Amino acid sequence: MSQLIWNGLFVGSFYALVALGYSMVYGIIKLLNFAHGDLYMLGAFSGFAMLGAMGGLVRSSSLVALFVVLILTMVATGLSGVVIERVAYRPLRGAPRLSLLITAVGASFALEYGTRIVAGPNPKVYQVRLDGTALHVLGALITWQQLALMAVSIVLMVALNLLITRTRQGRAMRAIAQDPKACLLMGIDVDKVISRTFFIGSALAGAAGVMAGGYYGKIDFLMGFIIGLKAFTAAVIGGIGNIPGTMLGGLLLGLLESFGTHFVGGQWRDVFAFAFLILFLTVRPTGLLGERVTERV
Amino acid sequence: MSDTVQDPPVKPVKGRGPTFVTRFLESRHLGWAGLAIGLLAPFVIATPYAMDVMTSAVVFVMLAVGLNIVVGYCGLLDLGYAAFFAVGAYTSGVLSTELKIPLLATVPAVIVVTVLAGVIIGGPTLRLRSDYLAIVTLGFGEIIRITANNLSITGGPSGIYGIPGLFGDATSSQVVFYYAVLLIVAVAVLLAARLGRSRLGRAWRFVREDEDAAEAMGINTYKVKLAAYIAGAVWGGLAGVLFAAQLSAISPASFTFLQSALVLMAVVLGGMGSTPGVVLGAIVISLLPEVLRGLADYRFFAFGVLLIIVMIARPQGLWPHRSRER
Predict the structure, then answer these.
(1) Long-range contact set of residues A192-197: C-beta below 8 Å, sequence gap at least 24
(2) Any stretches that span the bilayer, and where are they (chain A) (predicted)?
(3) Which of B128, B307, B73 is nearest to A100 (CA)?
């Protein structure tokens, strides 16, 4: 029982990290960035490339190496996110919603199959594998590495929340979410803020990608597809556009999946998650915390 | 003073009028010309391989025309269109192999099941913002594929095989089958185009252009969108029947997101809402891999980039719809 809860929380923290980027971008420019899951994949692959380049250092101290790679990858995927926004989404601001969605699908395709051209179609095995001694806490098996990864996710999420609620930058983001035109009149550089939002969201997805690579050990160019869908589900459950809600949604989805897998069977895990998405959209489309419009980002 | 101010004489602005190319592209006989090309194609080349490719292309046209109702006419993005294709193929496949009846006899059941699937997915989500529909359909596509993979009645990962032909005879010649498919699809294309010009079709376009205005003019936008979604579902399901008849075996691997994305690509590239454009787009997309075998790795990457470029540079597609109702 406590093992199920722990597994759920652990997987859920990954979902939450990816979902935050979805939620932020949606909150600000009302765009479903289908390429978001692929930025997670890109993070995993760029981490793979960096670990390969570091060579011997990786073997001596894997956790430290992974941490350095994590930071570098966040910068790399963040910049990729900014480039995608600049090339694919900015020219279409103000265009019909359908064009934007189709462009997002195109961006997702280009990222997936671009990675396939560069890295090859076969799955890659991560150089660093995080499996260590397990602790017994209340009957659940918990490894130190899981704890470390979860701590990193929590630190990132808390930092994001502080950024959004306490800084000028965050205030500008919240203002744009409410009224981009008025922001322009008040002297906010809307394009720049949107760029930064993409940077932050993509960096978080990249971080999740590296951590997933290190934890599961295997990456492939389509790994972002399912996680993107799951992250969206998490964002909808929590209330899309709402940061604390999205974190909650991620953890909740992780728990739901963990229990669902236990009782229904592993092969139905994804069906279970998407069925919840449809159920939530039917019953409560604003999500659990969706009503607090003032806190939207 | 006022009598000295004269309005400048209004000069009638004379356009150049439709050029020859425009008139040709909008000709009413274009459909017949297309059908004639389809009918004559086997006289040019009739190797088994070529017949197979051409039959697939025609089935793909049916899919694209069905998706065009949803995306092109009504402006709803459906990213899980392969799900309806799968529902149709599996319904007819399971019924015909279990009950030992020809595929054509399963068509009523297929229509009922696809309409139900359309209502189940469209019902709750069409009330929400249109982008939710996109992601829900994406999830629905995965649900159907995984379900087909897990259930035993659908044959699991290996699927169903030994599906009888359209008329119950698995041994009918490829050419006969091609002509049967061509005629069915031609009727389906004609029906979809007529539907697009009907009262309902005008309502779809209105909803696509401005949903609030449509609502204000007394259109029940929810019902109209649901109608488009269900029509798309039925077209997709019937295309699935043809697909099952062609291959006589179906497996979950045929109904991935890639399939949905390719159909969407055909619709967007050809011109959303334009029947000739979509038909041409579908033929190009389905024949392209046969022509460019060596570039398979770059194909999907190029598709992705092309989607972005088309949306930025020419969102109406290569062969756009021109309204006759001006």
Answers:
(1) A193/A28, A193/A169, A194/A28, A194/A29, A194/A85, A194/A90, A195/A82, A195/A85, A195/A86, A196/A169, A197/A24, A197/A25, A197/A28, A197/A173
(2) 6-27, 39-58, 64-84, 96-114, 134-164, 198-216, 271-290
(3) B307
CA distance B127 to B232: 18
Closest CA to B128 of B116, B117, B141, B137: B137
Q: Which residues pair with A124 in a beta bridge?
A: A219
Joined together, the tokens standing for residue B116 give 């139900």
Among A149, A131, A116, smallest CA distance to A219 is for A116
Average pLDDT over residues A62-81: 85
Domain covering A2-295 in this structure, CATH number: 1.10.3470
ipTM: 0.82
Domain boundaries, chain B: 53-253
CB contact under 8 A, A226 and B142: yes
Distance from CA of A108 to the nearest CA of B (A): 7
Q: How much is the pTM?
A: 0.83
- Any chain B CB within 8 A of the CB of A210? no
Q: Which of B123, B281, B251, B120 is nearest to B189 (CA)?
A: B281
Q: Which residue is listed with tokens 């204000």? A: B216
**pLDDT one-digit tens code per residue, B62-112:** 999 999 999 888 888 888 888 999 999 998 888 888 887 777 778 888 899
**Least Cα separation, residue B313 to chain A (angstroms):** 10
Confidence of residue A132 (pLDDT cuts 50, 70, 90): low
Cβ atoms A113, A221 nearer than 8 A? yes
> Is A264 part of the contact surface with chain B (CB cutoff 8 Å)?
no
Distance CA B38, CA A104 (A): 35
Mutate to test the interface with B, among A117, A230, A271 (most CBs of B within 10 A): A271
In whole angstroms, give the CA distance from residue A204 to residue A173.
Answer: 17
Q: Provide the pairing of β-strand A218-219 with A124-125.
A: antiparallel
Domain spans in chain A, listed from the N-terminal domain onward: 2-295
Half-sphere exposure of A253 (CA within 13 A, CB side): 40
Three-class SS state of A201:
helix
Main-chain dihedrals φ then ψ at residue B322, nearest 5 degrees: -115, 125
CB A112 within 8 Å of CB B300: yes
In whole angstroms, what separates CA B208 from the centre of its chain?
17
Give the tokens for residue A119.
């890295």
B242 near B62, Cβ under 8 Å? Answer: yes
Contact across the interface for B307 and A285, Cβ inside 8 Å: no
